[in-house]
Structure formats: C-alpha cells, structure tokens
Amino acid sequence: MPKQARALRTYDAVLDAAAHEFARYGYANTNLQKIADQIGLTKGALYGHFSNKEELAAVLSVHLRDAVAPPLTAANIPADPALGRLRSLMLTLGELFQGDVRARAALRLTLETAQASGGTAALLDETHSVVLRLVGEVQQEGHWEAAASAKAVADLLVAAFFGVFWMGSDQQRPESGGRVAAMWNVLDHALRSKT
What we know:
single chain, 195 residues, mainly alpha, elongated
C-alpha cells in the first residue's frame, strides 16, 4: 500500500479516535495517549500527524464549521416556504450531530470554550439568528401562532435541538435522529396557528 494512502488513513483514524474522546470526555479530560492506544499507535507516531491536543481540536472545529455552513446557507435562501426551511435546518443539524462524531465533538469543544471564556459560541449565535428570522417568517406566513414570542420559540428550538445530544449515554445517542424528528413534530403541532 502506498505510504501516502496509509498516512491519510492513519490521519483519519486519529481524528475519529480524538473525536470520540472529545465528545465523551471534553477537552480537559481527553488524553493523547488514550487516543493513540485506541488506534494502536505510539504517542510519537500520533505526534507525526498532530503536534498537540489543540491542533486536533482546531481541525475538528474546521470540520464543524464546514459541515454546518451548507444547511445554514440553504435556510437563508427564500425559494421555499419558511416552515420547510426551518424544519430542514433543524432536522439536518440533528442528523449531523447524531451521525458525525467529529461534528459532535467539535460542538462540545465549542461550547466548553465559550463557557470557559464567559461568552457565547459563535455557532449558536449564528444558528439562533437564522432560526429567529425563520420563526418570524413562519409566524408571518400564518403557520405558527403569532402570539408566541419569536425569540422564545427560537431559544427553545436551538436549546432543544443542540441539547438533545447530551441527553443519555453514548448507547442511546443513535436514536437521537428519531428524537429530533419527534421533537420537531411536537413543537410544530404545539405552535400551529389555530386560525
């Protein structure tokens, strides 16, 4: 097997192992030796790919940014009704965090960093901004009750759909996609305009 192909596979294996560790234990409790042990590398061999934990976290953060950009961009294109765009955004993000451990790990790292600095995570701010605008449009289109505070609904959607991935153990997370769809259906039904 060519050396470059093996190096790329090892690089991906390191990222996946690091993502599992970060998603499960957070930044402070993730250990490079445990990552190396998971994939059968020496710590020195791991350093051949990533010089430290910060570099691993940075690569995962870029992955998250790249994965979230397309659904956020699509939600901003007013070609379809706002309710469909909002539903698509929330379910796409739900599927992303259910099925992509790298994205889930980067989300945890992003939230930990924001919490430690006393700030808010730019990803959540950006997502909330898009969701808030879409909720307002959904209400204007008459699909949801206009009496409900758009900001409160956006807060609820973002908190619920991002928070679902920290409910339960790792063994329960594969159901998260079904949870996300069920949560969407409950919220949509509860907010439906009575007129």
